[in-house]
Amino acid sequence: MRKPILPKGLVEKLKRTQLALASRVVLEDGFKRPIRTVAGLDVAFKGDLALGACVLLSYPGLEVLEVSVASSRPRIPYIPGLLAFREVPVMLKALRGLSREPDVVLVDAQGIAHPRRCGEATHLGVVAGLPTVGVAKRVLCGEVLDQPKWPDTWTPLYHEGEPVGFLYLSKAGCRPLVVSPGHLVSLISALEIVRSCVRGHKLPEPTRLAHLEASRAARGRA
């Protein structure tokens, strides 16, 4: 498959946009206490169609309250480090399909653990003005002093000398998750919220269920 021809200067323009969004990030808790609802967001693809799923759950009980699925055709191809511009629009569409606003949103993506401190969870949080946490499956940038070895243990993730999140081992026999705040959530709260949402699976329930819904929607599309 041929690589898409991008408009001249597009990549640099998008990187500047990420830096501008990152400058607006608040790494202090801005969510309601006590937290009563938490949402999970994920995106799946069927050809060039993006399917975004948002699952709203009670907290801390994690009972499913509502599911919203949306679709769109991204105008920007996959570009490493710039995935938010491809996926966040359909995430926002799914999020706005809920009948009520969640207190905190967990996104199956990076938060500030990103080369420009602006992964999808951060991008979405700043644009929507909502507290967000990134829960990613691999490290995009940064290093740790040691790997977590036992379930429900973690180690700080640093990038350029600054803490940007944690490697969190949620389940034995699995690779650690990358947990990082997106917006309006502190480093410690990001980890504690994710820990409280794990129910025997590798992924916390909000993003696990959002992944299942997005995958189901993609399979059901012609």
Could you give the topology of this structure?
Blueprint: H1 10-22, E1 37-46, E2 49-58, E3 64-72, H2 84-95, E4 104-107, H3 120-128, E5 132-136, E6 153-159, E7 162-169, E8 177-183, H4 187-196, H5 205-220
Parallel strand pairs: 1-4, 4-5
Antiparallel strand pairs: 1-2, 2-3, 5-8, 6-7, 7-8
Structural notes for this entry:
This protein has 222 residues and is an alpha+beta fold. It is built from 5 helices and 8 strands, in the order αβββαβαββββαα. The chain has one domain: archaeoglobus fulgidus dsm 4304 superfamily (archaeoglobus fulgidus dsm 4304 fold, 2-Layer Sandwich). Strands 3-2-1-4-5-8-7-6 form an 8-stranded mixed beta sheet, with helices on both faces. Helix 3 links the parallel strand 4 and strand 5. The longest helix is centred in the C-terminal third of the chain and has 16 residues. The mean pLDDT is 95.
Outline: globular
CATH topological fold name: archaeoglobus fulgidus dsm 4304 fold
**Spans of at least 5 consecutive residues with low confidence:** none
Number of strand elements? 8
Q: How many distinct helices?
A: 5
How big is the Rg? 17 Å
H/E element sequence: HEEEHEHEEEEHH
Mean pLDDT: 95
In helices, the fraction of residues equals 25-40%
Domain module count: 1
- What's the CATH H-level superfamily name? archaeoglobus fulgidus dsm 4304 superfamily
User: What distance lies between the first and last C-alpha atoms, to the nearest angstrom?
Assistant: 22 Å
